[in-house]
Write a structure and sequence with these properties.
Elements (H helix, E strand, L loop, with lengths): L3 H11 L15 H11 L11 E7 L1 H17 L7 H13 L2 E8 L6 H21 L2 E6 L8 H4 L5 E11 L22
Antiparallel strand pairs: 1-2, 2-4, 3-4
The structure holds flavin mononucleotide.
Flavin mononucleotide (FMN) binds next to strand 3.
Amino acid sequence: MSTTYEIISKVIKERRSIFPASYIKKEIPVEVIDQILETANYAPTHKLTQPWRFTVIRKAGLAKLGEELGRLYKDLVPSHQFLQKKYDSFAEKTSQSDCIISINMAVSGKIPEWEELAAVSCAVQNMALTAESLNVGAYWSSPPLIESLSDFLGLKENEKCIGLFYMGYHNETPWAPNRTPMADKVRWIED
Ligand SMILES: Cc1cc2nc3c(=O)[nH]c(=O)nc-3n(C[C@H](O)[C@H](O)[C@H](O)COP(=O)(O)O)c2cc1C
């Protein structure tokens, strides 16, 4: 029997960003998507602003998102910087995914904006850990184009898209994460 620490530590350490190229063609049931989303709601939040908002994109919505990202890329990137490979990657990645959840932040004005961003990030980590525990691969993508997705995502005036959470089942086995030692990142004050 594993202790709670052992279980949570395993999920935290084995969670990896799994990219669309590794996803297999297997539908993620709506119940599983709901389980993943539900855990976002338990993130900590200053003044209980609960700034996390999401738009779930599935089925035909995925191709629409791919087209929209391609259109924005074509419109916004100067022609001398345009790369056909990059343009094609949007449709490719969206078609490889089974579900994409846009990560949105509602700015309440009650607390500094960075605190809203921090709370949404905590919510996304809950989702990432839940996805890991359910064998769903996921990763947070943050292309600059997301700033122009508000209309597509149906966002309100005070909402901003801060990422796309790509999801899909996969057959990857856990690998060791690329991290420098924790001891290099901690200072202790004891006297
Ligand atoms: C806020 C945030 C934004 C990210 N944006 C991207 C991105 O645009 N493209 C990408 O390939 N990975 C992105 N990632 C995922 C990182 O590449 C990944 O977390 C990192 O390589 C460590 O790997 P791991 O998640 O498997 O531990 C993002 C992660 C976070 C937290």
